[in-house]
Amino acid sequence: MADEPPDTKFPDHVDKAVRSVAQLHCEHRQRATTPQRTVNRIAALMGRPRFVVIAVVITAMWIGASLTAPGFGLRPIDPPPFPWLTIAATLFSLLLVMLVLVAQRHEDELNAHRDTLTLELAILIEHKIAKVIQLLEELRRDSPQVHDRDDPQAKQMAEPADTGSVLDAVRANDER
Q1: Which residue range(s) make up the domain with 142?
Q2: What span, in angstroms and rounded, lies between the C-alpha atoms of 141 and 16?
Q3: Which of 40, 57, 94, 143 has the most beta carbons within 10 angstroms of its beta carbon?
């Protein structure tokens, strides 16, 4: 049936990885304070195309009302050059910038957690690959069916990288 979701059976390790990323996002949302969630909601609403249309319509109505008021014998609320509109737009822009900065800071925290997780996984994977190379080299040495030979590159790859040394090299390269 078209309404049923496709059968998505993943291997356990893929399912576990997906769940851990979902858990990271869930914990990030749960740690957000009520004001932070409110700011995120407001920023999300303001980030939609519909909001741009609403802002343009309100601005056009403001200008239109100020320009047509004298034609109806009324005093315009904000005659040209529209000083109150300028003040309102400036204050609104300031508010919008602050909302975006607060929301972006919250998202940056999630990105920092994600970057840390990625780095930890890369280090773990590097250690696992080094162990696999060690085991393959050991198998090659111990197996009578495989010709034993000296492979300096495999010896180097079998040693896990010293993350501190790698970090120092990256820092030195960045300073250059």
Answers
A1: 29-175
A2: 36
A3: 40
The answer to the question of residue 2 being in a domain is no
Say how far apart CA 117 and CA 113 lie, in whole Å. Answer: 6
Residues in the chain: 176
In this structure, is residue 16 part of a structural domain?
no
In contact, 161 and 131? CB cutoff 8 Å:
no
DSSP symbol at 11:
-
Summarize pLDDT for 88-117 with one digit per residue, the tens. 999 999 999 999 999 899 888 888 888 888
CB 78 within 8 A of CB 84: yes
On whether the CB atoms of residues 148 and 141 are closer than 8 A, the answer is yes
DSSP conformational letter for 73? T
User: Could you tell me if residue 142 is inside a domain?
Assistant: yes
pLDDT of 1 reads 47
Report the alpha-carbon distance of residue 123 to residue 114 in Å, rounded: 14
Question: How many structural domains are present in the chain?
Answer: 1
Separation of alpha carbons 94 and 88, rounded Å: 10
For residue 3, being part of any structural domain is answered with no
pTM flag (> 0.85): no
For the chain, the 3-state helix, strand and coil shares in percent, each to the nearest 5, are 80, 0, 20
